[in-house]
Aldose 1-epimerase (Lutibacter flavus), 391 residues
Amino acid sequence: MNVLKRSLAVLSLISFAYISVQCKENKKDKSNEMVSEIKNPITIAKEAYGVTSDSINVESYTLKNEKGMEVTIITYGGIITTLKVPNKDNKIEDVVLGYNSIEEYQKSTPYFGALIGRYGNRIAKGKFSLDGIEYTLAANDGSNHLHGGVKGFDKVVWTAEVLEDTGSLKLSYLSKDMEEGYPGNLETVVIYKLTNDNELEVSYEATTDKKTIVNLTQHSYFNLSGDFSKPILDHEITINADKFVPVDAILIPTGELKDVANTPFDFRVAKSVGQDIEVENEQLKRGLGYDHCWVLNNQNEGIRLTSSAYHKESGRLLEVFSDEPGIQLYTGNFLDGTLPNKQGGTYGHRTGFCLETQHYPDSPNQKDFPSVVLNPGEKYKTTTSFKFSVK
Ligand code: BGC
């Protein structure tokens, strides 16, 4: 009896659940009648991940598809801790930087794999005005505000719910009025959905009860080689953008949108990250490499292909689809070999790149940039999807 009780206690303690999600799909049979067929099983496994320094339990959820692609997301920061995809020989390896424990994530992270909010990217001096009221946010990046502040969405614990019928994980968070200095109670929902096409879709929704600003994104660092000791300079990138957003010395947009033609910022045709990253260029100097937002083409088309990254040796191709107007390519310029690498060793210079779909930096202070204002009664809605294949 005691043994039974103990096993039950252990079981509930580690809170392990294994949910097989059977996505039903209607299909026509030969006689043209609609029949219902069970197809596309996505499995979702929940496990205890750890406990935060303020004693909050953190769970992990692993979504796996029938091709063996799997993604693990933790409720702390909605962080993607691992993302495993096949290479051209069908070897499944992890392609995102991160850590192995909650302690490491809490100690110091350059936003590895995290959800970013309320505002992805920089706001000059952390100040903006709405209807004549000036708001002041934390200056957590020199004199600027970056990625939501001291305790942004990357450092809060989200409430998780498995959506069995779609093979998705729903994360919710209520950011209270004036949290990190932002006005309005912001009800935020992020849904991670895995498909059998090796696609991870991330959809975001938010509503507010007071006029506010929102610009959410996902901050995964990719290294498609699967070997985190290798720099990503050999990855070939495309970005479907004729213009980019030049920045000043502290990475705040100058307000100009500049043509990429004849600059190192032209990724309209595939080019390796390393090809032009060291050329003499004032913008590259300021970013210490690529750390800029591109003005994506076809902004009225909704979800479209924004960019891609290809790693020839492994054959892995990542395509990023989104309805956002901009994308920040950040080439891990601040990684300097001090942070522990989950494969052993440390994360060296430029061993990961981010493709962060978003509105342009400092939009609240730039009247000509697309608006990031959200009013009560409106719904903020945006979707980005990361599709993996081999070539
Ligand atoms: C920014 C970088 C920043 C990094 C955080 C990126 O999104 O563009 O400037 O250093 O996040 O580590």
About this structure: Confidence is low (pLDDT under 50) at residues 1-38. Residues 1-33 form one domain.
